[in-house]
Amino acid sequence: PNWHEIGGITPNNEEASLLEFPEYAGNCLGFLSITRDEKFFALDGQHRLAGIKTALKSNSNIADELISVIIAAHSNTPEGKIRSRRLFTTLNKKAKLVSKDTIIALDEDDIAACITRRLIESDDFPYFNEDNISFNSGPVRDRTSITSIVNIYDNVQKLVAYKLGVKIIELERFRYRDNLGLFGFVSDFYGHTFEACPELSQVAKGERQAGFYRNSETGGHV
């Protein structure tokens, strides 16, 4: 790759001239040209890179879209390899994990996340909806929510793992688009649960608030 520096950057008005302009800043704007013979590898964001590749296969038009990247120079020497490996491990060890509620809301591959969203958002399952489910990750304390979206997700994980005959930790190997039939299994399980428990059905149908069954006198069901 070659770096083409853009020089002669100076303030063009009085307001800009009052700003502190470090000397090095005048040398850090330019263009990086590549020959396409270079080798690039992801130090971080490997899943995003894989997602971009998959998206390009189904829609080549997005190839014209622009994204921001940080490019770190790599030297194919013993010292350079150590530097790159250290940068990789530092980025990945200290990166903040994605929260569970974010996974539930956005992940298009996670089986449990996709099924959980469909249980709440679609008309395929009549018992859960945005009015009777809490979207907070903590314990349910309000009077209207049957349970929380995180609790549904945790239980869906267990059901899916049971149906696939694997451990929960192994679910990452499976994709929802390849196992669409699992929704019916989970939906039937929850459906039978609601049908067998009149208290749950009353809350789901709006006949009672969940809080009525969440106290010391009439509680114990929700």
From TrEMBL:
Pfam families: DndB
Matches recorded under InterPro entries: DGQHR-contain_dom, DNA_S_mod_DndB
Name of this protein: DGQHR domain-containing protein
